[in-house]
Amino acid sequence: MSLPEVNTILYTSSLGKHTRPVFRHAVKMASLYQAKIVMLHVVEPISDYGQAVIHNYLPDALIKTIHDDGLEQVKGTMKQRVVAFYEEEMAMLESPSKPVVEVVVADGKRSEEIVSLSQQIDADMIVMGSHNSFGRSSRTTRQVIKYAGRPVVVVPTRSAKK
Q1: Which pairing describes strands 136-137 and 125-133: parallel, antiparallel, or unpaired?
Q2: 1, 15, 40, 54: least buried by Cβ within 10 Å?
Q3: What pTM does this model have?
Q4: For residue 135, how many other CB atoms are within 10 A of its CB?
Q5: What is the pLDDT of residues 122-137, one digit of tens each?
Q6: Which residues lie across from 39 on neighbouring strands?
């Protein structure tokens, strides 16, 4: 029996304050396996409450136009931020080989988008961060582990101990 191949690593990022240590784990693994990294940032939709409030003030056609135009602008801005983060981080790292990185910004529910993209790109592994509150990982992390059908490396971003 042969060892599993790792050619593509899906790294998920919220661009929060704990992003750098998680990204560094993804880069290290990509270097070890000589794998490509796909960096994913998910823009979550407006809550049901927010949508209900907006529908009270604007017609549906205008809401759709504003939503579609605004979403594309937000996704473009987030892609620029993710690329800037990658370039800044790689400039600081003393890594002999820089992994190939593809940036993807999607919109939807985080766990669903992570699982969906992992299937689309046939990721061999998912690397994500998760804080630990009361001995449990975040809901997003639990959902990805449950539904991804592939290895998920979870990098703790906050210790349960203080």
Answers
A1: antiparallel
A2: 1
A3: 0.80
A4: 6
A5: 999 999 988 766 566 7
A6: 11, 103
